[in-house]
Amino acid sequence: MEPIRKEELDDQACGSMAPKSKPCPRPKPGEAAGGCSFDGAQITLLPIMDAAHLVHGPVACAGNSWESRGSLSSGPSLSQYGFATDLGNNDIIFGGEKKLRDSIDYIAGRFTPPAIFVYSTCVTALIGEDMDAVCKEASDRLGIPIVPVNSPGFVGSKNLGNRLAGDALLQYVIGTGEPEQETPLGVNLIGEYNIAGEMWDIEKLMNQAGITLLSRITGDARYKEITWAHRAKANMVVCSRALLGLAKQMESKYGIPYFEGSFYGAKETTYSLRQMAFLLNDREMERRVDRLTEREENRLAHDLRPYRKILKGKKAVLYTGGVKSWSVISALKELGIQVVGVGTNKSSDEDVQRIADRVGDDTEYIPEGGASRIIKTVRERKADIMIAGGRNMYVAMKEQIPFVDINQERHKAYAGYEGLLRLAKELVDSMVNPIWKLASSPAPWDKEGSYDR
Amino acid sequence: MTVKRRSKPVSVNPLKIGQSLGGVLAMQGCYRAMPIVHGSQGCSAFPKALLTRHFREPIAVQTSALQEMDVIFDANRNLEEALNAVLSKHRPDIIGIIGTELTDVAGVDYQSMLKSYKRERNMRGGLAFSVTLPDFRGSLESGFSVTVEAMVDELIQQAGLRGQRNVNSRQITLLPGSYLTPGDVMELKEIVSSFGFEVIALPDISTSLSGHLLTGFSPLTRGGVPLDSMLQSLQSGLTIAFGASMERPARRLHNALGTPYKVFQGTMGLKASDELLNFLHQISGVPVPIRYCWQRENLLDCMLDAHFQFAGVSALAALEPDHLRSVSEWLEELGVEQKALVASCETPAVAEMEREVWVGDLDDAEVLGSGADLWISSSHGIAGAERIGAAFLPAGFPIWDELGSYMNVSVGYRGAMEWTNKAGNLLMRREAEHRESRVRHR
């Protein structure tokens, strides 16, 4: 894929365009799956590793959700602490603002975090807590940023929560600090959460090309680096649907050009790196990226050979959300795998267009959730493997379908060139495992004519 | 002894799990059941994710998917929609409506809505009930037992219409508490039935969450106690409850049907197992099966072998109330110093324990138990155990750093032996590591 030229970008007039986002569909009672906005906001902000994340509400919103995400840290781990104001009956009747204030003071005093993010929940939103005021007052008093995140669960889906978290960053964090040294070729990654350490592979590639990763938004981030995100020369939106609005607003506010890209698959990785170099507008950089991507692609092609032999002609059903629904297709195609079914449940119109660009005509679109629908597709299309998130993992196991987990709970990094190799290996390991034969053969006494006559 | 709390305004590293999750868990032990969590999407998504992670099984749960405007105007319209969808698509035998903190604070009356819904739809044959489980009260344990209580109530009501009761004195209803694993429930069923009793466990997660290979996907629960067995359990001559929290449902059966009941508060260790087996021996008149006599000796021998390992060792445990009490009794038998006992919430059972019990979070456990050699808690405790340098023994909910923990057995002589060996091995390895590091640094 060729990088888009500057003129085309201007033609599209991205900068002048307000975020064109259709409202997230209303979840259907009795048929809904997936998390709430509170969950989504946490997904986006918890990877800011050195900050404290305080949930204002009854304890279970934090108690049921802390330590459930696979974002890795290279150092500080305060964000892995679960903090909750733990509202009881009386707090709900008389108001929990005092408790919130005391909680913020306690955390600031004991853990001295660079910042505290405070999340509202359904209950605190319902009883009308003025979280913004408490945060502002405490912030002024304590001298550290205290960021209210107004994303109670009942305002909508996980995706909306991602966006609201992005709004909080834009309103309270980005633009409040300056980098320690000037970085003329700095790029921000937006919507990359360092699941299973993926970002580290990407950062290595960027460094090899001489591109500085200025702010991680937010995989393995430190609070400080997000404050100076507005000094970047370009933004790359890695998870396109959720935080696209953030990139668009940074473009209109700070004039930072952005592009949507992915690191799943060699082609997408190469495209993303080249697009970065292009937006940085540096000839030398473009040449360096070309050399790097060529070398990496060659090496990868060589290393992939044994896996491709096994994977060629295999069929997969892909069920995942947002950006992964199309970007993983490219990765699978490079491995010789045909995607015979793909979930479009959480994909925007743009995502669906990108899916259509990448798959054949006979690929089945699975617009709505429901494990039975996915399994039906696997069966009908005789797929060899199912690729989805942890929620569907055990459903696949019960049906004895080989499975690879690609969502936030997984433990393997699939981004970049190294990641594609890892994905290939994982797919092969999963498909050739002896368990499939063992599980499908009956016990000896259940075989016909097995007993002595 | 009184229960203590550390004074701090904020909960740090919560030990408490939402009550509604306990309700969802109880429903998993019923065949073809569907819990509907009346709240926002996350109120069901979080429990689903957490339970899936712990049991490594698909979990049946649905949501009324409340949004802001629904809460303000008419939350029950969503519930009705959810009920319609679930009933027409999946035809479950059992439905449990689980009210959350959101519906509680908003004052939604889903109890009477369910009543009129049942009247209008003429829901015969099935079992539908509602419970109120806001997260700002209780914990997983109370959510579980309250749900079982509501289930029992509904059963009694439904059977009441069908006439009289034929008491079957050879049949026993088991009420296993929320802290028991599918492996535990299986073991308890086996122990009780080895004395010649028919056993109906209510709920029975041992046949739904212990791993099965039934094909043909269904979003309802697979396995668990079927509705007709549940109704049949009303004929039982005796109820045995495990865990103090299960006394209330047992009392419900007693009050309505006159069924006598026995509560075992502790389920771990030699004494607790002795008590159970002797009780079964007394009421059945059947001698204790030879395999348990063997197991008892195995356990005593294992405790003798292990006592070198436990001498002078201190432990902390942070668990749900009933579980904490049970584990504390086992630690007592091993002669382990109990540095800190932390419960997720206060119940009469922990209040009457003879040891000092704290109600708090895992941060309290870390502070109070500093210097302990052994840390017993859910997987949330791993980081804390590392920070204070204690060996980590996973127990309770959720556990994600260990395969097959849902099949671990802690009850009976066999369970006590498994735990004693496991804890002893952890301490042995820890000691070896310390030795090694000494050699390296010289």
Automatic annotation (TrEMBL), chain A:
<comment type="pathway">
    <text>Cofactor biosynthesis; Fe-Mo cofactor biosynthesis.</text>
</comment>
<feature type="domain" description="Nitrogenase/oxidoreductase component 1">
    <location>
        <begin position="36"/>
        <end position="430"/>
    </location>
</feature>
<protein>
    <recommendedName>
        <fullName>Nitrogenase iron-molybdenum cofactor biosynthesis protein NifE</fullName>
    </recommendedName>
</protein>
<dbReference type="GO" id="GO:0065003">
    <property type="term" value="P:protein-containing complex assembly"/>
</dbReference>
<dbReference type="GO" id="GO:0016163">
    <property type="term" value="F:nitrogenase activity"/>
</dbReference>
<dbReference type="InterPro" id="IPR000510">
    <property type="entry name" value="Nase/OxRdtase_comp1"/>
</dbReference>
<dbReference type="InterPro" id="IPR000318">
    <property type="entry name" value="Nase_comp1_CS"/>
</dbReference>
<keyword id="KW-0535">Nitrogen fixation</keyword>
<dbReference type="InterPro" id="IPR005973">
    <property type="entry name" value="NifE"/>
</dbReference>
<comment type="similarity">
    <text>Belongs to the NifD/NifK/NifE/NifN family.</text>
</comment>
<dbReference type="InterPro" id="IPR049939">
    <property type="entry name" value="NifE-like"/>
</dbReference>
<comment type="function">
    <text>This protein may play a role in the biosynthesis of the prosthetic group of nitrogenase (FeMo cofactor).</text>
</comment>
<dbReference type="Pfam" id="PF00148">
    <property type="entry name" value="Oxidored_nitro"/>
</dbReference>
<feature type="region of interest" description="Disordered">
    <location>
        <begin position="1"/>
        <end position="31"/>
    </location>
</feature>
Automatic annotation (TrEMBL), chain B:
<dbReference type="InterPro" id="IPR005975">
    <property type="entry name" value="Nase_Mo-Fe_CF"/>
</dbReference>
<dbReference type="GO" id="GO:0016163">
    <property type="term" value="F:nitrogenase activity"/>
</dbReference>
<dbReference type="InterPro" id="IPR000510">
    <property type="entry name" value="Nase/OxRdtase_comp1"/>
</dbReference>
<comment type="pathway">
    <text>Cofactor biosynthesis; Fe-Mo cofactor biosynthesis.</text>
</comment>
<dbReference type="InterPro" id="IPR000318">
    <property type="entry name" value="Nase_comp1_CS"/>
</dbReference>
<dbReference type="GO" id="GO:0065003">
    <property type="term" value="P:protein-containing complex assembly"/>
</dbReference>
<dbReference type="Pfam" id="PF00148">
    <property type="entry name" value="Oxidored_nitro"/>
</dbReference>
<comment type="similarity">
    <text>Belongs to the NifD/NifK/NifE/NifN family.</text>
</comment>
<comment type="function">
    <text>This protein may play a role in the biosynthesis of the prosthetic group of nitrogenase (FeMo cofactor).</text>
</comment>
<protein>
    <recommendedName>
        <fullName>Nitrogenase iron-molybdenum cofactor biosynthesis protein NifN</fullName>
    </recommendedName>
</protein>
<dbReference type="InterPro" id="IPR050152">
    <property type="entry name" value="ChlB/BchB/BchZ"/>
</dbReference>
<feature type="domain" description="Nitrogenase/oxidoreductase component 1">
    <location>
        <begin position="19"/>
        <end position="426"/>
    </location>
</feature>
<keyword id="KW-0535">Nitrogen fixation</keyword>
